[in-house]
Amino acid sequence: MTILVCPLSKVEAVIAARAPERIVSLLDPDCPSPYVGPEYAKRHLRLSFHDVEIATWDEDIPTLQDIRELLAFVDGWCRTAPLLIHCRAGVGRSTAAAFVTACALNPRADEKAIALALRRLAPFARPNEMLVRRADAELVREGRMLAAIEQTRPVRSHGDSADVSAPRAEGTPFELPAIFA
């Protein structure tokens, strides 16, 4: 089974095309969650925090409680259909949550292999590092998750890290495998 990742603008189309088993919405505190229908009433997790670039360090960032809710929700995924994870742009929070989900579902898999797969499928991804950092601690990965995201950051031809802080309007929907060897 797969983890679907998309921006808010594509949620309805992805639901119509793929009928995910569960949905995770990671949106700004002032952004309403998309209407996904009554069939998702108990299968839709809504987490509310800003992406790190615009949040202050004392409010509206991913908390340990957010990570625990995400991990518990993913643990309830039967994998009879895909899991859909989205944020506003499909670039930061959702790509981080997809990476966290894949790591949680694959406790023995190499974090860097998962990060490389994410980068191949979504070269535009800028995973929210605070979300990854908190999940890394909760999953007791001893910094390997954050290191994998940092080590796989796109590189320019002259060797410097690419400017991942440059804004991107929206990511393209993609699928990340749920199982890694």
Characterization of this structure:
- The protein is an alpha/beta fold.
- It has one domain (2-155): Protein tyrosine phosphatase superfamily (Protein-Tyrosine Phosphatase, Chain A), CATH 3.90.190.
- Helix content is 34%, strand content 14%.
- It contains six helices and five strands, in the order βαββαβααααβ.
- It has a five-stranded mixed sheet, with helices on both faces.
- Helix 2 crosses helix 3.
- The longest helix is centred in the middle third of the chain and has 13 residues, at 93-105.
The number of helical elements comes to: 6
CATH architecture label name: Alpha-Beta Complex
CATH class: Alpha Beta
Unreliable runs, pLDDT <50, ≥5 residues?
159-166
Largest sheet: 5 strands, mixed
Principal-axis shape = globular
Average of per-residue pLDDT values: 90
The class by helix and strand makeup works out as alpha/beta
Give the amount of beta strand, in percent. Answer: 5-15%
Ends distance: 14 Å
Helix content: 25-40%
Q: What is the element string, with H for helices and E for strands? A: EHEEHEHHHHE
Q: Write down the domain tally.
A: 1
CATH fold description: Protein-Tyrosine Phosphatase, Chain A
**What is the tally of beta strands?**
5
Strand order of the largest sheet: 3-2-4-1-5
CATH superfamily: Protein tyrosine phosphatase superfamily
- Rg over CA atoms, rounded to whole Å, is 15 Å
